[in-house]
Write a structure and sequence with these properties.
With 300 residues, this protein is an alpha/beta fold. It has a single domain (51-69, 82-296), classed as TIM Barrel (Alpha-Beta Barrel), CATH 3.20.20. Helices cover 30% and strands 14% of the residues. It is built from eight helices and ten strands. It has helices at residues 8-19, 104-116, 124-131, 152-163, 185-193, 213-230, 246-254, 287-296; strands spanning 76-77, 86-89, 120-121, 137-138, 141-148, 169-172, 197-200, 236-238, 259-265, 277-281. The strands form two sheets. Strands 2, 3, 5, 6, 7, 8, 9 and 10 form an eight-stranded parallel sheet that branches. Strands 1-4 form a two-stranded antiparallel ribbon. β6, α5 (185-193) and β7 form a beta-alpha-beta unit. α2 packs parallel to α4 and α6 (213-230) packs parallel to α7. The longest helix is centred in the last third of the chain and has 18 residues, at 213-230. The radius of gyration is 18 Å and the shape is globular.
Length: 300
């Protein structure tokens, strides 16, 4: 782990070096849409265009930095303007012609690449702390997230990521926990013990922009409360279908979430609303070339 250097001279030198650290950029490449259909039960559909959330709009900004033992950073970032890639997956399984089901063999290649390139996984709340000046991040930080809470996130993704010293965040649908092909409470608790985090993804996975105020509050706030009763404090939220508007974001803020994630294309950035952070969509047929490009250019 990084140890502070007491000498003010050396501290200044280290900070100067870190401020010059950045990510290389190459030409951008457009997102692909997600075909209809999802893994077996429950039937959860993703946005038709993961590069742009439904009914999205820009809103004003809303108001533990340790890494896993095998994921120890070589340096710490202090540049608050650093953009951070946040990957998002759904299922890690082999389902022909279903783009949200990442084949385990492809997932393995992607994780191996991240390890070879020196990436260090961070939690989404570490990103929040970093953007708000409450924490630092390791060199080449990256967050890996999963939407919906499929069982294979534990049986397939977890062991592969653990091999490389990586951890992730899973945004779960509260009422679906324990359903067919969905993570159980015991699965979630086991992941938390391994350094993973759990985030909210509503109670029933509905388009929140179409709900009246009482139902909206129930979907957003009750999701947080139900998860916290059996797990841990829930600080992050992911919008179902990537759909949000001013009313939905206000409900998420009022429920007490600190950071929120959309399906808008791009990297997480301090200049973006904390409750509307962008992510990188990872789909079954993307291939390694496209995967690498999305990690090299925030505006892919």
């Amino acid at each position: 782990m990084f140890k502070p250097i007491r000498s003010s001279v050396f501290s200044a030198a280290i900070c100067l070096l870190l401020l010059t650290t950045g990510c290389s950029q190459i030409s951008s490449m457009s997102n692909k849409g997600i075909p209809a259909g999802t893994p077996a039960n429950p039937q959860i559909q993703s946005p038709a265009n993961p590069g742009q959330s439904a009914n999205s709009q820009t809103m004003p900004s809303s108001p533990n930095t340790t890494s896993p033992d095998n994921n120890t950073p070589a340096a710490l970032h202090v540049n608050r303007d650093l953009s951070i890639p946040v990957l998002y997956y759904h299922s890690v399984s082999t389902v022909p012609k279903n783009e949200i089901c990442m084949p385990p063999s492809e997932f393995e290649k992607q994780m191996a690449y991240l390890s070879e390139q020196g990436y260090h996984t961070v939690s989404v709340t570490q990103i929040y702390d970093f953007f708000t000046g409450k924490g630092t991040l390791p060199d080449k930080p990256i967050a890996i997230t999963f939407d919906d809470g499929y069982k294979d996130n534990y049986t397939n993704a977890f062991p592969t990521m653990k091999k490389y010293g990586f951890t992730g965040t899973i945004f779960v649908i509260a009422e679906n926990i324990g359903s067919n092909n969905i993570l159980t409470w015991d699965d979630l608790k086991a992941l938390i013990k391994e350094g993973w985090q759990i985030g909210g993804h509503s109670m029933t996975h509905v388009d929140l922009t179409k709900l009246d105020s009482p139902k909206l509050t129930e979907e957003v706030k009750n999701s947080k409360l139900s998860l916290e009763k059996k797990l841990e404090p829930i600080k992050s939220f992911c919008y179902p279908f990537g759909a949000y508007n001013a009313k939905v974001e206000k409900a998420v803020q009022d429920a007490g979430y600190l950071i929120g994630f959309t399906t808008d294309r791009g990297w997480a950035d301090r200049k973006t609303d904390l409750l509307l952070q962008h992510r990188i969509y990872c789909f079954a047929s993307m291939g390694m070339k496209e995967f690498e490009k999305r990690l090299q250019n925030p505006n892919y």
